[in-house]
Amino acid sequence: PTTVGPVLMDEVGSGHRIQGEVFKIDDSALQAMDILEGVRNSFYYKRKVTVQMEDDKDELCDAYFFPAKEELISQPAFPCYTEEHHSLYRPGPVNEEIVGLCRGSHG
Predict the structure, then answer these.
(1) Which residues of the chain have pLDDT under 50?
(2) How far apart are CA 68 and CA 7, in angstroms?
């Protein structure tokens, strides 16, 4: 792969439970996340998943999935994203449309 970053892939029969974080966000933040994750450009896709919370209750949440690709499926899978993994990640440039949505500037 040309980059190192966390991806969630929906590949039946592979993988395992993962640890993550759940956030309650407003519509502007959700729109910003869709841009960040490339949903508009079909880089990722979003679907509802049932998440088991620490208190054992289930929550229906949106999750972003990267289309399954053999070159990624063949890579080691990790149950959580650690500081070591993060040290290898190189994000792209700041997107001002996302910044505007997060600051409450619409349009």
Answers:
(1) none
(2) 10
84, containing H or E segment: helix 83-86
pLDDT in tens, 36-46: 888 988 889 99
CB atoms within 10 A of CB 100: 14
- Residue 22 has what DSSP assignment? -
Residue 61 main-chain phi, psi, to 5 deg: -130, 155
- Per-residue pLDDT, 25: 92
Cβ neighbours around 13 below 10 Å, total: 4
Q: How far apart are CA 3 and CA 71, in angstroms?
A: 12
Q: How far apart are CA 21 and CA 63, in angstroms?
A: 11
Query: Among 52, 72, 54, which residue's Cα sits nearest to residue 3?
Result: 72
Contact between 74 and 54 under an 8 Å Cβ cutoff? The reply is no
Would you give the DSSP letter of residue 35? H
